[in-house]
Amino acid sequence: MDTTTRRRAPDDTRAEIIEKALEVAAELGASGFTLDAVAARTTVSKGALLHHFPSKIALLEGMIDHLGEMHADSILAEAARDPEPYGRNARAYLRATVNEPFTPQDISIGRVVMAACAIEPTLAQRWNTWIDKVKIDDPSDPVGADDALMLRLIADGLWMSDIFGTHAVSLDQRQALLSLLTPGHPITANEA
Amino acid sequence: MDTTTRRRAPDDTRAEIIEKALEVAAELGASGFTLDAVAARTTVSKGALLHHFPSKIALLEGMIDHLGEMHADSILAEAARDPEPYGRNARAYLRATVNEPFTPQDISIGRVVMAACAIEPTLAQRWNTWIDKVKIDDPSDPVGADDALMLRLIADGLWMSDIFGTHAVSLDQRQALLSLLTPGHPITANEA
DNA sequence: CGCTACATACCGACTGGACGGTCACTGTCA
DNA sequence: TGACAGTGACCGTCCAGTCGGTATGTAGCG
Asked: Could you tell me which residues form the DNA-binding region (chains A, B) (predicted)?
């Protein structure tokens, strides 16, 4: 068993492909995101790419799983460092999603993912699955469901605004949105 | 000047093409939205289609202009029938955008527009231009800019949620979001 | 330990179809 | 007659996915 084996572990190859695919998405955008472009950037051939991801959609699924997992992790990490339990998860979701300004690469990747989800609805479902994992298992949070939803909608709207360049939202404004939820003061009218 | 002229006014043809293009978008989705499919549905040929819209992007621009104009109108209409001046425009934006549940056709068209904007950023700018027209020219509204922005982000987030099927938001919850803005009670912390 | 058999990673030229866009031409009006 | 709506066959490109083949592992077996 040689440490310099020529045949790598499949998981390594898959990981490399996804990593490079994200680079291509970041640099070339949706129109330049082709299997050939991705393969050209990896150390493996297009054949190997198709061997590990049997279709373009399968590759996008892999990318979305990767991004979804990372995003879910960062939401949980934000929640873990938030001392205030009230509305913690919703706040963490907003922080992890749009707290810091996007790089041009982030925007480009966001656009590719967005286009993919718009063209292939199953990909949108797959993303939703990842994000759904976060809000589960926190009955300890006394925040009203409506308020929590409100903050998530704000986060999503802000994300879309950043991706499409709709509104210029300052850091102060983002900060203000984070302060919306306070214990015992429901924002929306019909709390349960 | 014959009323049954065989050569129609160009504007009529353009209008028909855009109308039929939206039908194709509604029924076939982003992957089925091709120039051939659009031409096949109109009374004119593909050549005429390309005569009026010299490229696919030009056609999408025409569709976005159409949708943007209609949407801006319906926002203004909502605003006009709202007796409460405080936050009127922001509320109207939310109402016009996501007050009533989307039909599958609406969702499909939304996805096509979304994909187009994600792939071709200039289209996103074009949409923004239409929507920007609404918030202009209302210095009479005393609502804080931050609160107005908040409601717009909620509306956008809700729109995206409807398009991607992320959250199931009840009519009651939508109603509650409309009640967020009340005079003299800023929601966000740092009102000007 | 070889030897065989099979599985899997990988290669890259090729294909087949989709699709955006062109063009030479006709018909119709002012 | 010039300008323009409109035609539809055609073209060129792009690109996802295929396929025959090679290289490199591993498992069984005497």
From this structure: 34-53
